[in-house]
Amino acid sequence: MLMGAASCGDILQVDPVTSLPQDQLIVDAATATAALNGAYDGLQAGGYYGLSALLDGDLASDNAVWTGTFQFLGELERNDILSDNAETTGLWTAIYQQIDRDNVILQRTPGVASIPQATRENVMGQAYFLRALGYHNLVKFWGGVPLALKPVESPAEAQAYTRATVLETYTQILKDLDSASAFIKNTTNTRYATPTAARALRARVLLYRAGVTGNTGSQADYQAALDAANLVLAGRDTLVVPFGDLFTASGSNTSEDIFRLSFAGAETHGLSNYYQVPGRGEVAASANLNAAFPAGDLRKDRTIAALGTPVRLNGIKYGARPATDHIHVIRLAEVVLIKAEALARLNRLGEAVAQYNKVRIRAGLAPHALGTQVTTQAQVISQIELERRLELALEGDRWPDLIRLGRAAVVKPAAAGGKDIFPIPERDIRTTPGLVQNPGYLR
Amino acid sequence: MFSLSLPWQRFATVLGVLFTVMTAPGAVEAQQTGSVRGTVTDSSSGRAVQGVQITIPGTSLRAVSSESGVFQINGVSAGSATLRAQRIGYSAQDRSATVTAGSTANVTFSLSPLATVLTTVVATGYGTSQRVNVSSAISSVDSTAFANIPVAAIDNALQGRIAGVQVMQNSGEPGTGVSVRVRGPASLNAGNQPLYVVDGVPMLQGTFEQITSTSGQRMTPISGINPDDIATIDVLKDAAAAAIYGSRGSNGVILITTKRGAAGNKFRFNINSYAGSQQADRKVELLNSTEYVTLVNEGRANQGQSLIYGPGADSINTDWQDAVFRPAAISDVQLSVSGGTERLRMFLSGSNFAQTGIAIGSDYQRQGARLNLDAQATDKLFLTSSIGLTRESNDRVPGDLNLDGIVTNALSLSPAYPVFGNSFGFGGAAERLNYSNPVAYAAFSSLNVRTLRALGNLEARYDFTDRFRVTARGGADIYGLDELRWRSPKVDRATSTNVGGEGASGRTSATRYVVEGFANFEAIRSDRQQLTLTGGASTERNESDFNYVSGTGFPTGFERYVRNAAVANSFDGGATENTLVSYFARASWSFLDRYLLSASTRTDGSSRFGSENRYGMFNAVSGAWTISDEGFASGLSKYASLKLRASYGTTGNQGIGDFASRTLATAQPYTGVTGLAGSQLGNANLKWEQTAETDIGVDVGMFDNRVTLIADWYDRSTSNLLVQRPVPATSGYTTVWDNVGAINNRGIDFNLQTVNFQSRDKNGFEWTSDLNMTFNKNKVTELYDGQPITGTVSNRVTSIAAVGQPLGTFFLIEFLRVDPQTGNAVYRKADGSETLTPNAADARFVGNPQPKYYGGFTNTVTYKGVDLRGFLQFSQGNKAYNLFRIFADNGGVDGDNKVKSTLNRWRKPGDITDVPRMGSTSGSGVRSSRFLEDASFVRLGEVTLGYRLPASLTRSMRADNARLYISGRNLYTWTKYTGYNPDVNSNGANSNIVMGVDYYAYPLARTFTVGLSAGW
């Protein structure tokens, strides 16, 4: 009988035809490139840039309100998030799922000799970029997180993870970005990462790290953010594309795009459905945001559409139905504003005002003059906060900005006591003994 | 040898004394007497029968046959004497003897076994056995229980018929699956439906439809076998019986044996035909137009809002249920030819079953043919084939779970809207219908599902000796399923309205091949003991593939087929496969016909499991002791037979996806560019779910077997549950298949058959009853990390698997009362306080969807040519969640029609009621236990009156026999449940955690049929 069992081993070895054993994922240049596309597909997930990464960054802030039936979105709006909240759990999950795809590329690609050097570097460089983007999104919303840097063989490995500190997380992000800048060969296609995108993300990351409590190198980070922004802006330090052209239903590709995530055909994001009626209408732009736009701001009508009685403020920045407009993950105006804030932090106030004026002028607003509308460093920084709020409204930047600036609990008092950052998902807390919950959520 | 333990000896002594007293002879005539001596044998086996009472009627003389069948009676008066031999399980026999004084006369009895419950042959899997020789828990149903029952699939006809087997109808939609639970549900993910084996070939099960958004119900592959072709059904209930099916036996095994021809150089022709009419057995009581308008306005007024409806708003009063339900025809015609010679026998049948749905647009048809051949090729070689072909066509309607379904909209549309109007003749958006018009749907849209099925096997048996037989068998089950859906743009407010219609077609084929060989060997065959050995091997390959495409944007006049679509908006295609390799063996030992011992083992290798755990072994042992055959109980054996059974065994469940144990990657494109990414984290240690079951049972026959009781106590513990347990998302995945958790089922089931009255005349009055009942207690005993797992209906949590609770316990906010002062609903918060606005964290365990007990009660009365049968089915203690009330009992909020009971709403302070104030803020719409209803029911499942035509008449028809009957099915249901059917599950037959939730389920039909069966 045992002999029979042995001889029947072949019958029992059945391989799937519509999926692949994962150890055969990357075997040549074509599959390495396919794996990279798979990693970008991870960005499109509804839990990530396909919805949550943008939605949550505004819903937790004063930019958006909950108007639907999903209670977990109500928790976000009220900054009273339970650790099993489906929305924040989904965001955390989608980011780590995307990071795993980067890790698979980074682990497997070096071992496949047949991949040409340039292809290998290009693929790995972009994977480093995507991993850095992932960890920055995690650290923005949760603080220091477990650093998964290689794919797991079994769940036990992940169950043994512990959290890195915020600064350790940033160190890893910057390390990945260095690799990304050095390796990426793609310089033209903004649907994929470029060295410029890596530098722009570096500027963003440094601006965030500079604001981290306990960061003794804060000023150096502002300087480094400025340097990185300058590298990006070299030769293109102007905003010439009309604001309305930046976000078109067909998925715009403008000279201001640094890294965009494309959608097409059956791949759609969820923003128009969530922000609008008709549609799920779970979320609307807040009256507070609506009122924050100065009279004559051209951006307002490209961000909010007021409809019906009582008035509903549909969010229309990403408003295409079907939702195949591209998500502009990093665009030039943000880098301009990063540069403005870095300059302001370095007390180069005149230059800072000149930078943010570029955004105002494009929006049809009068430029500011130092000493007139703004005088002190605090005033300049505060004005840049407003410009970021208006320029990047409904792009998911408001709440991380408020956390970074230490103003989350000022704007949303319910977030006091450590409820500005999100709770680590209950599932991960329960399955990972060494994972410590954020203090605001300890019972 | 067998030595009796002390208490038994004492019991035996007492019995002995008792019988000695009872049978003490009176005055014996000392002279003129002789003796009678003889033996008793079994007419079928020729073996000695012990324990037979030999009496001489009119005297007190008696004796009991010994182990070797020998008896002797002394003191018999000289002359002619009549001796009567009686034993339970045999026909009584009289013999006369001439006794000469002082000598011994010789008499031999050859008793024929009675065809009773206890002597029938039961299928045991890879063999058969007489029930008296069975030591495990097996229930049998013969064809009389389900012949001519107007349902498409046999599982439906088993409802209430078998102790320990719970059959839930789920929905009345023709051709869709029912839930069958043998001794309670025990799996969270791997499926709870039993294994069906037809003539030795395990049937394809599961669901193969691709268009699943239409309804929570699925077509059942079980309907591919025509109930009229079935001879017997045996249900292997305990692990000892089912272990021979190894890794698939843990939900019980249903063995179906089809009819075969009999020898006799004669062919029999049979016709079985019925036709009848069906109707929805009840309506849900909803508001009429005036009531609806009144309540909505009252709610608006209570909220301080402007009134929606002015005078005359109720001028139209539509009963949407009347618009959607209709009397519907049902018919079945079956012709069969059977018979043959000793060398070649056949059974050939053809049938046509047609069931129009009671909801418009719904229609089911099945055509079937079967050819079963048996050929005695040589003295030793016996060949058989069993082939069934079936074609089904099912026009399905959107229903259960679907928020835009026929039944859904019949319940939800406001009565103030008209059926007919300006949208292609039907009421639509212009008539302010807020949902699509179900009558328009039935007129313009459709979903047709067609299946083709071939299920059969070829078998060769070779008898090397009369004790050693080898069987080789090859079987196949080939199933093709085509779906074609058309969502017409002519239906207003449907999903397809604004996209120019949507046509979709899906094609699925599934194939199972089985090759097996086994040997049966009677190792010992003597009067004292028999040892039968069975051993064999089996391999099985399952393949399926599918493709699907749907398109939108059809030009006017074009429909259905995607050829004319402007855009292909969705497509899919793929294939999957799994294999199973098995070795099995069984030994059954019988000593003195009263000590039975059986052991079986099966080793299964499955391609589904992790590389480390591909093979699993399942063992079982059972024993039985026929106490009534013991010498000390010899007095008892005239009146009763008593057999004690005990068994223990393990079975498995492998009902998971084909590649659940593997770490896999799939295509994940990025805006049209090929992409690849990980899709699943594997588990090389993944193995089958295991059920260990202990069963203790008794088989009792009393009063010439006029009373038969088969009762079992069981304890089934299922462990290593196959679940997708959570893993940290930091791994890149959220779940992995693993073996964690346990569920216990414990209970008692019994079947009591009685012949209540039996006339001495052959065709006299006879009344028999058959009662079966099951008391099952289900409990989840272990889960991963102790974490409960919730089950959802339409994305709403309704049910839960939680440690210490029965599987599927309703998990809802608890409704306490309506506050008499405010009319607000009062709910219980998690901390015990009360609130109007509970949240998800306040949900509690509020009820059990599983019954405390269930069963069936059949009574049959025959007198001369007339037979009358009544069948009651019952289920007590189960709750059902009437989920549609979240819209139909939500404080009169405009939109959906409301249930009639909302008229009892709170109106002024001091009102005592359980219906909150009308208005959106009274807390009415909260998904709470307010909508949880008692779903206990007693159902008059069947009444049939038959008349066997007198022989004179039959002869004039040149028929051997003919019977006319009228039958009513599902005649009345006594229940407090307010929905259509308390026996409901909108999530369908394959739902594991969710049970008893009603979300726009298709109602059951009450059916009346007139039928004829005749044989030539």
Poorly predicted spans of chain A: 1-8
The rounded Rg of chain A comes to 23 Å
Beta-strand level of the residues of chain B, as a percent range?
Answer: over 45%
Task: For the record, give the distance between the C-alpha atoms at the N and C termini of chain B, rounded to a whole number.
Answer: 55 Å
Question: What proportion of the residues of chain A is helical, as a percent range?
Answer: 40-55%
By secondary-structure content and strand pairing, the structural class of chain B works out as: mainly beta
Residue stretches of chain B low in confidence (pLDDT < 50, at least 5 long) are 1-30
- Main β-sheet description of chain B: 22 strands, antiparallel, barrel
CA-based gyration radius of chain B: 32 Å
Per DSSP, the total helix count of chain A is 20
Q: How would you characterize this protein structure?
A:
The complex is a heterodimer of chains A (443) and B (1016). Chain A is mostly helical. In chain A, α7 packs antiparallel against α9 and α16 (349-362) packs parallel to α17 (377-391). Chain A contains 20 helices and seven strands. In chain A, the strands form three sheets. A two-stranded antiparallel ribbon of chain A has the order 2-4. With 1016 residues, chain B is mainly β. Chain B is 7% helix and 48% strand. Chain B has nine helices and 53 strands. In chain B, the strands form eleven sheets. Chain B has a 22-stranded antiparallel β-barrel. A five-stranded mixed beta sheet of chain B has the order 10-15-16-13-14. A four-stranded antiparallel beta sheet of chain B has the order 3-2-5-6, with no helix packed on it. In chain B, a hairpin with an 8-residue loop joins β28 (595-606) and β29 (615-626). In chain B, α6 (406-412) packs antiparallel against α7. Chain B starts with 5 loop residues before the first helix and ends with a strand. The chains are: A mainly alpha (443), B mainly beta (1016). The interface between A and B is large, with 66 and 57 residues.
